[in-house]
Amino acid sequence: MNVTQKLISSHLVSGEMKAGDEIAISIDQTLTQDATGTMAYLEFEAMGLPKVKTKISVSYVDHNTLQSGFENADDHRFLQTIAGKYGVYFSRPGNGICHQVHLERFSRPGQTLLGSDSHTPNAGASGMLAIGAGGLSVALAMAGEPFWLVMPKVVHVNLKGKCRAGVSAKDIILEVLRLQTVKGGVGKVYEYGGEAVKDLTLPERATITNMGAELGATTSVFPSDEQTLAFFKAQAREGDWEELKPDTGAEYDEEIVIELDNLEPLIATPSSPDNVEVVKDLGDLPIKQVCIGSCVNSSFADLTIAAKILKGKKIHPDVSLTVSPGSRQAFQMIAENGVLADLISAGARVLECSCGPCIGMGQAPPTGSITLRTFNRNFPGRSGTVNDRSYLCSPMTAAVSAITGRITDPRELVKETIEIALPERYLVDDSLIVPPSDEAQKVQIERGPNIKPFPVKGELEESLRTKVVLKVGDNITTDDIMPAGAKILPLRSNIPAISEYVFSKVDPEFPGRAKSSGSGIVLGGNNYGQGSSREHAALAPMYLGIKAVLAKSFARIHKDNLVNFGILPITVDADVYDLLEQDTEVEFPELAKEVNESSVITFADIKTGNKYSAEHGLTRRQRDVILAGGLLNYIKGKK
Ligand code: MIC
Ligand code: SF4
Predict the structure, then answer these.
(1) 109, 188, 299, 637: least surrounded by Cβ within 10 Å?
(2) Residue 271, preceding peptide bond in cis (omega within 30° of 0)
């Protein structure tokens, strides 16, 4: 078996390991973050259990740390108290980004992790099966329920050779994105192997598995080997380590080979992580902002590499450079060893260890300018500036460019490989991780006025007369559907309020139109719902009356979220997509019956009388969830 098969087979509770079949796996660990966590814990609370049933569940605060009103601060209190009550570890604001901290302090080779954040595969670097999902799926995992998924194909990414000076792990994952695109990974796990793996440290592996989320993949994973052991030793967690390697001759469904010697510094150009180009081919592009940080490139090693380049130099007068350390551990270590001083001296604006500019929480770039970021996503407007021009690169490219003031091939300054050895011992101080309370019955959950109960849908309608309230193109992201940023993100625990912003950047009239129509369907192109795991991109449209999404294809997590909240995802052919327009009125005469009994849904254009049929492609379980009006109703119905 390969590593993926070993991880799945040791957790399989239902189904067969045949690619494309639905399976269920048991979940050892969960993680949530504050922007998805408030809903996830409200959902868990609604299940009426006294305590989580996982081996470890951790609640992080890292997204909503800008406290420009009471909302985020109230959510932090809610999250801390509800964690204490239900047996969840609470990583306080200031302790770092969930993925970075989880890798450092909680990851376990051989275990499964379900996280309400799409970059949960970051922990795949340690040999975990780490999957991103919607908050409700994570709430169910905390309740001891298995996680249902389609058995993925396993792609062997065979890494050969050695990166040359100026090239790093970020360039490896950018190369995979160039080859596979943002929809190429749907239904796949990317398992890294080959002779070069032994040279990649855990933080480098995490950069690769983290940004594997942008492929649309189920997850990405590395074997657990001597590098993994070295990292666990340095984190004083040697006892948590175990070896996990593929059997000799293990088979894979697909293989891609990457010759690291031939790799050049790469960059994702606006506005998709797979618009990958070679840095040196870009020509002279002046920049106004450089941001170093986000869960993909904010480790101790990443910050140290950037500082080595910036040491003794000053940033270009036109550039604003921000640095957000990924964890308090990394932050404190660079503070103690002088790296932080080098960054400050070069002119960096040092931010707290949180997601920050990656999710538009401050530091929106100036109008019409280029922002160069070590992040994983450059979806349109995500930075907080309309028509932004956001480029994604490695910390080396970012640091060199901050000095020159234009996008620069790092090899202009970096002539020799910068070796950053793993520290012998990281600074271990878990004092900002609050363990679950010993006296759970005494904990009072604190709920601020921004925390509103989540809406629940009724059973699926027998028949439906409705209309297309929005038609959109390919690769619509969850940032398009439910934008984030400093203004909207604080409303994550208030669905009525946040629903006013659904599709607001694509079509500001959408919420009003959907509400006045009473019900509606959204028509999308390929890879509808790529990106984040935010279930708000399903929950808020459901609140506005959206009953179904018709699209040429769906991204994995978003499709699950639609089903979880009772919105029917229907896959349509290109000709159906072309014939339907915004405002087309349609009728589904036998909706509930067809969902229950058939694999095909029929509907008609009311005006022209044209009849259409489409495969819903849902499993028996998903059909029952849709019929019940969502996963919570379904689970309640089963009890
Ligand atoms: C993101 O990177 O888009 C986020 C913000 O971390 C999301 C989660 C969210 O929307 O809360 C993700 O990746 O799942
Ligand atoms: Fe936070 Fe950005 Fe990572 Fe999402 S991608 S978890 S917003 S740092």
Answers:
(1) 637
(2) yes
Please report which helix (H) or strand (E) contains residue 137, including its range: helix 135-142
Please name which ligand lies nearest the alpha carbon of 297.
2
Cα dist. 258→161, 199, 512 in Å? 9, 15, 49
Each residue of 289-330: pLDDT tens digit?
999 999 999 999 999 999 999 999 999 999 999 999 999 999
Whether 623 contacts 595, CB under 8 Å: yes
Write the pLDDT tens digit of every residue in 380-426: 999 999 999 999 999 999 999 999 999 999 999 999 999 888 899 99
Task: Please state the atom number of ligand 1 nearest to the C-alpha of residue 482.
Answer: 10
Q: Answer whether 316's CB lies under 8 Å from 402's CB.
A: yes
Q: Which of 272, 251, 146 is nearest to 191 (CA)?
A: 251
The H-or-E segment that residue 31 falls in is: strand 29-33
Burial class (CB in 10 A: 0-12, 13-18, 19+), 620: exposed
pTM exceeds 0.90: yes
User: For residue 634, how far is the Cα from the chain centroid?
Assistant: 26
Predicted confidence (pLDDT) per residue in 83-100, tens digit: 999 999 999 999 999 999
Contact between residue 205 and residue 130 where contact means Cβ atoms under 8 Å apart: no
Q: Cβ-count burial of 383 within 10 angstroms (0-12 exposed, 13-18 middle, 19+ buried)?
A: buried
Helix (H, G, I), strand (E, B) or coil at 198: helix
Which pair of tokens denotes residue 346? 């070069």
Is the CB of residue 358 below 6 angstroms from any atom belonging to ligand 2?
yes
Which of 31, 97, 103, 323 has most ligand 2 atoms within 8 Å of its beta carbon, as the pocket-test mutant? 97
DSSP 235-274: TT-GGG---B-PPTT---SEEEEEEGGG---EEEPTT-TT
Number of neighbours of residue 317 by Cβ within 10 angstroms: 7
Determine contact, residues 187/556, Cβ cutoff 8 Å.
yes
Q: Residues with Cβ within 6 A of ligand 1?
A: 35-36, 63, 117-119, 132, 359, 377, 484, 531-534
Q: Residue 267: which residues within 8 A CB-CB, separation 6 or more?
A: 174, 276, 277, 278, 279, 282, 391, 392, 393, 397, 407
Reduced to 3 states (helix: H, G, I; strand: E, B; else coil), residue 449 is coil
CA distances from 391 to 12, 21, 207, 292, 399 (A): 40, 37, 17, 12, 14
